[in-house]
Amino acid sequence: MSPRRPLDDAALRALLLEDAPHGDLTSESLPLAGEGVLSFMARGDMLLSGVEEAARLFELAGATARVLHASGERAGAGELLLEAQGRPDALLLAWKAAQTLVESMSGIASAVRRILDALHEAGSTVPLACTRKNFPGTRTFTARAVKDGGGVMHRLGLSESLLVFPEHLLFLDPGSRHAALAELRRRQPEKRLVVEVGSAEEALAAAEAGADVLQLERFTPEALAALRATLVERGLQVKLAPAGGVNAANAVAYARAGADLLVSSAPYWAPPADVKVAFRRGGAA
């Protein structure tokens, strides 16, 4: 497996610029001298993400860095994740942005992996797809964290997939909805047609109209199982993707009810992982 590359330098430089738009006033005003070494260590068990990005932040700030545990790997309490070496002003410039990035991304990746671990322990291979409902402006980083955790992205944005919401249907004449969905499929033949539904009646109507995937908004596992039975009864082949409220506590129940994939934004709001940072004067040991 090839080493994971950090994200684009432009996105990482923007993090440094946000934190120090006119330089680091404190470091620039002190007579800092010599070199130092900064270490990142895990305070507890975590699934890592953002380590390569953190290393690159130190490099962009003028230091050198090496990754000891790569993104996508598990780390236990006390394990060394990353070391950076260089001028103190360079280390101090990248410190907080790099630490926060690893903590936030590892928190997301760890939450994704916990859900997948629960599914695998129950004997399920149902995938976990995370939505685009992340904090605005952070999708580049959150999508990478989802991937590091073993999940997939449900949608990276409005430009790359078809998802018809009830809010779309609201602005279509009720009598023309079937025809409108058929026209949508004709105009976008490469894309799967996903339709969000909030009831069994809406689900059956969308399935009969040719939906490939039904996104089941706030369905319980029991309601999903009942819908699956009805679809089989009527000979309708469509994938079921529960969404809204899917989390580690109910993922297995949805999988056992017959879900084809799970759609969730819960990992985005998981607590960040805890990374200890230590500085010392001098070069690497």
Labels describing this entry:
single chain, 285 residues, alpha/beta, Aldehyde Oxidoreductase, domain 3, TIM Barrel, 2 domains, four-stranded antiparallel sheet, four-stranded parallel sheet, 19% strand
Question: What do you see in this structure?
Answer:
- This protein has helices spanning 9-19, 25-29, 51-60, 88-121, 139-149, 166-169, 177-187, 200-208, 221-233, 251-257; strands at 36-42, 46-47, 64-67, 74-75, 80-86, 128-130, 152-153, 162-164, 193-197, 213-217, 239-243, 262-264, 275-281.
- 38% of the residues are buried.
- The protein has 2 domains: 9-107 and 271-281, Aldehyde Oxidoreductase, domain 3 (Alpha-Beta Complex), CATH 3.90.1170.20; 118-269, TIM Barrel (Alpha-Beta Barrel), CATH 3.20.20.
- Helix 8 (200-208) links the parallel strand 9 and strand 10 (213-217).
- The chain is elongated.
- Helix content is 40%, strand content 19%.
- It contains 10 helices and 13 strands.
- A 4-stranded antiparallel beta sheet has the order 3-5-1-13, covered by helices on one side. Strands 8-9-10-11 form a 4-stranded parallel beta sheet. A 3-stranded parallel beta sheet has the order 7-6-12, with helices on one face.
- With 285 residues, it is α/β, with parallel strands linked by helices.
- The mean pLDDT is 95.
